[in-house]
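Final report, section 2: Outcomes. Of the targets proposed, Probable allantoicase is the one most frequently requested by collaborating groups, and we therefore present its record in full.
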Amino acid sequence: MTIDSVGLPDFARKAINLASAGLGARPVFATDEFFAPLERLLQDCPAVFHPGVYDEHGKWMDGWETRRRRGPGHDHAIVALAATGRIAGFDVDTTHFTGNYPSACAIDACLAPDGPDEATAWTELLGMSPLGPSAHHYFAALADGTWSHIRLRIYPDGGVARLRVYGTPALDRDRIGDDVVDLASSLLGGRIVVFSNGHYGHQRLLAPGRGINMGDGWETRRRREPGNDWIIVRLAARTSIERIIVDTAHFKGNYPDACSVQAADHGETDCTVDAALTASSLYWRDVLPRQKLSADSIHEYGPDLIEEVGCATHVRLNIYPDGGVSRLRVFGRIARAGTP
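The predicted structure is given below as tokens.
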């Protein structure tokens, strides 16, 4: 299985959800939250429905839901993105909202590092677009730029289960300078490109912090055939790898027996053909030779184990034969322009 096979639009497959609460996105303001709070809109897990569950305001719904308007106007909400970045597109998900979804939505964005105020200039990234019941609605962003906040407008009222804002974090090279940083981090722009299997999930492998449970990482099915599982990550920038961390937090009876890491330099331009990248990865150089792993542990590999392979833009984490890894960290300095 590859990420391509899930049928998402290109911007959703090749970008990061900047509105992920798990990455640090947070609610800022909503005109109304009577039936369901704005914070649910940003949750990473799929929306759920609990028949017969009510709270003091009415039916419990997994998302953001406003009361029924009885006058002019429309509702809106403002969200601080997990990282300032460029936005490629959106998923406005109305799952389980069948008779109470908005008729339409629009989305604006701004760059306001200290938070938006009444003087903030907003740029429309999505004009008014129709919504339907209990469905994912994918929309491409209409304007380019670097943004810190988005404003979701719904017409006139109703509920949205999840909002996903697909984009790329802005890498502040001047601020980072020559510091050693985790260039696999989602918050800097590292992203998963393709993998052999992700039956129990993969999205959180590059997230900040340690995993909170066994579902917070990358885990494959039990392998019943020869070979091993693997996952390929595009780093946020070219680097000479200095340190690697493989964390098996919470994986106790299902951690891999061993791991290794390969690396390759594909330059600053993105390789857009996943099948070609997968094929070439079979011959990438070992930056970390095969190492034994243990349960529920942080495994740190420094200069004594890291092989010199020159600059790298991609890494391939191999696990033997299968199992779960909570986090992958790849530390290095951003390569300067012209570095061979």
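Residues 3-169 form a domain with the Jelly Rolls fold (CATH 2.60.120.260).
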